TrEMBL record, chain A:
Consists of 3 domains; the N-terminus binds the ribosome, the middle domain has PPIase activity, while the C-terminus has intrinsic chaperone activity on its own. It is an enzyme of class 5 (isomerase). The keyword Cytoplasm applies. This is Trigger factor. Involved in protein export. Acts as a chaperone by maintaining the newly synthesized protein in an open conformation. Functions as a peptidyl-prolyl cis-trans isomerase. Its EC number is 5.2.1.8. Residues 162-242 form the PPIase FKBP-type domain. It comes from Pseudogulbenkiania ferrooxidans 2002. Keywords: Cell cycle, Cell division, Chaperone, Cytoplasm, Isomerase, Rotamase. Its main location: cytoplasm. GO terms for molecular function: peptidyl-prolyl cis-trans isomerase activity; protein folding chaperone; ribosome binding.
UniProtKB/TrEMBL annotation, chain B:
GO terms for biological process: translation. The lineage of its organism: Bacteria, Pseudomonadati, Pseudomonadota, Betaproteobacteria, Neisseriales. One of the early assembly proteins it binds 23S rRNA. One of the proteins that surrounds the polypeptide exit tunnel on the outside of the ribosome. Forms the main docking site for trigger factor binding to the ribosome. One of its GO terms (molecular function) is rRNA binding. Pfam families: Ribosomal_L23 (PF00276). Belongs to the universal ribosomal protein uL23 family. InterPro entries: Nucleotide-bd_a/b_plait_sf, Ribosomal_uL23-like, Ribosomal_uL23/eL15/eS24_sf. Keywords: Ribonucleoprotein, Ribosomal protein, RNA-binding, rRNA-binding. This is Large ribosomal subunit protein uL23. It comes from the Bacteria. GO terms for cellular component: ribonucleoprotein complex; ribosome. It comes from Pseudogulbenkiania ferrooxidans 2002.
Length: 435, 100
C-alpha cells in the first residue's frame, strides 16, 4: 500500500492511497467461497451452486463491500503511520486509474486538528466580580419568600390594589358577545398589570356581590387582533374580594421553610447559606465565562470545518429536543444552521484550547477533586449521601462533575497567571433580577 | 429456415444443478425452447445465435405440474427442454450472454 499526503490548506489534507488489486481480488474470492457454502440460488439445493454462479449473483455486491472496508482500513493505517490527527470524518473519492490495473486508487480528503498555541496569559486582564452578601440581601430574599407565600383572606370591603378578586365577566362589543371576552370565577390580583389598566381600575372599588358595567378600550397593539382598538363593555359580577396578607417573619414562617424548631435565627442562617451558595455559583460561572473569553482572546486558532459542522449538528439536535420537551411541534420547524454557527465555533475552539491547556499544564481532574465537587452538589439535596452514591453508581454520571473540575482547574490556572482585576458588582446585577 | 422463426425458438437457458453437471461432463448446454420447436430448428437456432457448431440435439417434453388451490385443480404449462451437445472444443459462455 502506498500513501501520499497532500496539504491543501492549513488544516485540509488529501491523502492519495493506492491499494493492490490482487489483495482485493483475493479477499473477494475468499468471501464468495464462504458464501457459496450457504448460498441459496434458484435451481440449486442450498450450498450446491457452483462458485461461478454465486459470483454472477453476488460478485458486484461483495466487491463493493470489500472495497469499502479496504478503503477504510487503508486510510486509518496510513493515518496512524503518518501520525495524523483527523478531525471529523474523511471524505473518500475514487481516482481515475490510467492504465494501472494492479492497484485501486482513491483519495481521502479530511481535516486535521489544528496546532493549538495558547497565547501568553501573563498580563492579560481578567475581570473577577466580587459580591458581598450582607444582611440587606438576606432581608430581600426573605421578602421574596414571604411574597411567594402570600395568603388571601376574604373581606367585605371595597377591592383595593393588592387584593385578589374573583369575578364573572361578560364582554361585548357593540352589544355582541365576543370570543374570549367572558369568564366565570376568574381570579386575579389587582395592581399587578395582569389585566388591562381600564379593566383593573373598573374593578377597583367594587364589593362582593356587586354588579357593574365598565367600558374598556382595547389598545391598538393588543395581542387579540379581533378586538384591538375597539371599545368593549364588560358586565362584571364580583364574587369575592380577598385581602392579601404577607406571612409574618415568625416561628410559623420558619417552620414553613423547613426549620423544624421554628428558630428565626436558624432560618436566617439557613437562608444566608443558600444565598451565599447561589452567589458563589454565579460568581464562579461569571469568572469562568471571563476566563474562557480571555483564553479565546489570546489564542489564535483555525477551526476544522468538519468539527464545527458536527457541533452545529449537535446543537440543532439539542435545540430540537429542547423544543419538543416544551411541547412544540418540531417537525415543521426549520433550524437554519447559520444560527448555530457562531456558538458552535466558540464551543469547538474552547474545547480544543481547554484540551491543550489541560494537557500542557497537567491539569487533569484528580479523584479527590471530583469527590469534593460531588459532595458540594449533594449539599443542597435532602439526602446528600444518596446523591453522592447516585453519582458514583455509573461512569457516565461522573463525567459531568469531572469536566467541571477540569474547567475549574483551568480557571484557577489562568487566574494564577493572568492579571486579575477585581470588580465590585451589586447583588442584584449578579442575580439578574430587580426585585 | 427463416431467421425470424429461429429467433423465436430459444426462450431461455436452464440454470440448475443438472445443467451445470452436463455442461461440464458432456459439453452440453440446456435451453428452454418453444414447445413446437423441432430438433433441426433448435440446432440451426443455436448455431446462429451463439456462433458455435452443434453436434446433436436431444429434447424432452416436460409436463407441467398439477397444482391445487383449495378445491380447484390447475395445471402449469408443459414446456420443452433441449439438451444441445456441442462439437468438441466449442463453448457457450452463458454467464456472459445472460448479462447481455
Amino acid at each position: 500500500m502506498q500513501a501520499q499526503l497532500e496539504t491543501l490548506s492549513n488544516l485540509e489534507r488529501r491523502m492519495n492511497i493506492a491499494l493492490p488489486m490482487a489483495a482485493i481480488d483475493a479477499q473477494v474470492t475468499e468471501r464468495l467461497k464462504n458464501m457459496a457454502r450457504k448460498a441459496k440460488i434458484q435451481g440449486f439445493r442450498p450450498g450446491k451452486a457452483p462458485l461461478k454462479i454465486v459470483e454472477m449473483n453476488y460478485g458486484a455486491q461483495v466487491r463493493e463491500e470489500v472495497l469499502g472496508e479496504q478503503v477504510q482500513q487503508g486510510f486509518y493505517k496510513a493515518v496512524s503511520e503518518q501520525k495524523l490527527r483527523v478531525a471529523g470524518y474523511p471524505r473518500f473519492e475514487p481516482v481515475a486509474n490510467e492504465g494501472d490495473k494492479d492497484s485501486f486508487k482513491f483519495a481521502a480528503s479530511f481535516e486535521v486538528y489544528p496546532e493549538v498555541k495558547v497565547g501568553e496569559l501573563v498580563g492579560k486582564e481578567v475581570e473577577k466580580p466580587v459580591v458581598v452578601v450582607t444582611e440587606a440581601e438576606i432581608d430581600k430574599t426573605i421578602d421574596i419568600l414571604r411574597k411567594q407565600r402570600t395568603r388571601y383572606e376574604r373581606v367585605e370591603r371595597e377591592a383595593a390594589t393588592g387584593d385578589r378578586v374573583i369575578i364573572d365577566f361578560k364582554g361585548s362589543i357593540d352589544g355582541v358577545l365576543f370570543d374570549g371576552g367572558s369568564a366565570e370565577n376568574f381570579p386575579f390580583v389587582l395592581g399587578q398589570g395582569q389585566m388591562l389598566a381600564d379593566f383593573e381600575a373598573g374593578v377597583t372599588g367594587m364589593k362582593e356581590d356587586e354588579v357593574k358595567n365598565i367600558t374598556v378600550v382595547f389598545p391598538e397593539d393588543y395581542h387579540g387582533k379581533d378586538v384591538a382598538g375597539k371599545t368593549a363593555v364588560f358586565e362584571i359580577t364580583v364574587k369575592n374580594v380577598a385581602a392579601a396578607t404577607l406571612p409574618e417573619v415568625n416561628e410559623e414562617f420558619a417552620k414553613l421553610l423547613g426549620i423544624a424548631d421554628g428558630d428565626i435565627e436558624k432560618m436566617r442562617a439557613e437562608i444566608k447559606k443558600n444565598v451565599e451558595r447561589e452567589v458563589k455559583r454565579r460568581l464562579q460561572a461569571s469568572i469562568k465565562e471571563n476566563v474562557m473569553q480571555a483564553l479565546l482572546d489570546v489564542t489564535e486558532i483555525e477551526l476544522p470545518k468538519a468539527l464545527v459542522q458536527l457541533e452545529v449538528g449537535r446543537l440543532i439536535e439539542q435545540a430540537r429536543r429542547d423544543m419538543e420537551s416544551r411541547g412544540l411541534k418540531v417537525k415543521e420547524m426549520p433550524f437554519p444552521p447559520e444560527l448555530f454557527q457562531q456558538q458552535a465555533e466558540r464551543r469547538v475552539a474552547l474545547g480544543l484550547i481547554l484540551a491543550e491547556v489541560v494537557a500542557e499544564n497537567k491539569l487533569e481532574a484528580k479523584p479527590e477533586q471530583i469527590k469534593a465537587m460531588i459532595e458540594e452538589f449533594a449539599e443542597s439535596y435532602e439526602h446528600p449521601e444518596e446523591v453522592v452514591q447516585w453519582y458514583y453508581a455509573s461512569p457516565e454520571r461522573i463525567e459531568g462533575p469531572t469536566s467541571m473540575v477540569l474547567e475549574d482547574n483551568v480557571v484557577e490556572f489562568v487566574l494564577g497567571k493572568a492579571n486579575v482585576v477585581e470588580k465590585e458588582m451589586s447583588f442584584d446585577a449578579l442575580m439578574g433580577n430587580n426585585a | 429456415m427463416n431467421q425470424e422463426r429461429l429467433l423465436q425458438v430459444i426462450l431461455a437457458p436452464v440454470v440448475s444443478e443438472k445443467s451445470t453437471l452436463v455442461s461440464e461432463k458432456n459439453q452440453q448446454v440446456v435451453f428452454r425452447v418453444a414447445s413446437d420447436a423441432t430438433k433441426p430448428e433448435i440446432k440451426a437456432a443455436v448455431e446462429m445465435l451463439f456462433n458455435v457448431k452443434v453436434d446433436g440435439v436431444s429434447t424432452v417434453n416436460v409436463k407441467g405440474k398439477v397444482k391445487r388451490f383449495g378445491r380447484t385443480f390447475g395445471r402449469r404449462k408443459d414446456w420443452k427442454k433441449a439438451y444441445v451437445s456441442l462439437v468438441a472444443g466449442q463453448e457457450i459462455d452463458l454467464t456472459a450472454t445472460a448479462a447481455e
